[in-house]
Amino acid sequence: MTTPKPDAAASPPPGCPAHQAPSVTGLYGAAVADDPHGLYARLRAQYGPVAPIELEPGVEAWLVLGYPELLELTRNEQLFSKDSRRWRVPAEGRLRADSRLLPMTSWRPTLLNLDGAEHARLRAAVSDTLAQVDHRQLRQATEAAADTLIDGWGPDGTADLIAQYARRLPLMVFTQLIGLPAEAGPHIVELISHFVDSSDKSVRANAEFQAILLDLVRSRRQAPAADLTSWLLAHPAGLSDEEAVHHLVVLMVAGNETTINWTGNTLRLLLTDRRFRATLTGGRLTVSDALEEVLWRDPPTQNFPGRWATSDTVLGGQYISAGDMLVLGLAAANADPAVQQPSGEGLGGNRAHLAWGAGRHVCPAQHPARMIVETAVETLLHRLPDLQLAVPAHELAWRPSPWSRALVALPVLYSAFTPPRTPPVERPAWTPPSSPSPSASTPSEPTSTPRTPGSGRPGLRSWWNSLAGWWSGR
């Protein structure tokens, strides 16, 4: 990269956010929901690997579309900082107090917003905390939650895999992992959706969500338990209450929302792509291959804010001014012709995608997220092997979020249940102590007939049953 030598008499070239034409593309609304791949291709054709955009009317930014440019952006902290306090739009008074961008761009004392030594300290706390989660127990808990949700769908053979499965299952696991009570779950997922989608309720939802987590942190500070919150507070990094709250926000939003979208997008692929589904059922590919295909083509986070230029520079042929925001175009960079095979085949086993980001800020929660999603998809296919999409594929709608790639609904039809897997022998360490032990009764033998309402898994599943039943209005 060559840093330009500014000329006092010179004006930045066309394309600079400060000199954009009124017709600049907006990264919001129907355009980013209905056909994001077409949008990114048009921007690439018009501007190259870095394109000027608007995040909302009058708020400019750069969208990094190129694979090598995104790698350069994420690896050069000296030129491109994670500290959003460098953003010149709010500094110039051009960001409204009620802007929907605030929850996703406001500075917080987290690993997402810091560089250097402070970032390393906080990242170590989060990574070490996540490493304490036992993967075998996590898989067992995810299976139990999945079985409970499927059992509650009723005899009519219809379901919405977003509302009734993908959106509920991760939260049933995450609320338990961080130590929140079960009854808080539905309200929390609503709050998360508001500020991830940058809806008109995003600011208030963000404040309420943080208040809930602050109460949890103060409680665990006084009485630690076997959960992520307590482990985070006990880490040698010595997080303050404020730092702990903000990192729980990161875990819940990045972990929960990403897991929801990854599950839904993988199920959509299996139900709509005849080529992939045929090879999957034929035994050549696995669910793991499907997960990678989705991370390449429809990653759960399609764009992410961002980086802020520390000085005037050039990236991808564009003049970047100090204080400009650069948005990581994760989906667009994955589709960069420079890294795509001409045929578009063979992406399933290739993990060189940028769905998790890159550089020092690569997502630290990708491994537990993968285990939850893979288990959720495998369990559903095992229980309902004849799943079919209930509407034409072109009728599926996407949420109008500039950040998430998420379906509104995924309606399906099915005909019969198959038995779930053998229940876990012991309760995970972070299961609420009120749950009865799985050893209190003997699991029923597998059968090829539908299970009766009273034949659910004992022990661990009793907690899931009460939560799923309450959540379903029963």
Total strands? 10
Order of helices and strands: HHEEHEHHHHEHHHHHHHHEEEEHHEEH
Helix content: 40-55%
Strand content: 5-15%
What structural category characterises the helix and strand content? alpha+beta
- Contiguous low-pLDDT stretches (5 residues minimum) are 1-11, 18-22, 431-464, 466-474
| Neighbour order of strands in the largest sheet | 1-2-8-5-3
Rounded mean pLDDT is 81
Largest sheet: 5 strands, mixed
* Rg, nearest Å: 23 Å
> How widely separated are the two ends?
60 Å
Task: Looking at this protein, list some descriptive labels.
474 residues, alpha+beta, 18 helices, 10 strands, disordered N terminus
Detailed description of the structure:
The relative contact order is 0.17. The chain is an alpha+beta fold. It is 44% helix and 8% strand. It is globular. Residues 1-11, 18-22, 431-464 and 466-474 have low confidence and may be disordered. The protein has a five-stranded mixed beta sheet.
In short:
The strands form three sheets. A five-stranded mixed β-sheet has the order 1-2-8-5-3. Strands 4-10-9 form a three-stranded antiparallel β-sheet. A two-stranded antiparallel sheet has the order 6-7.
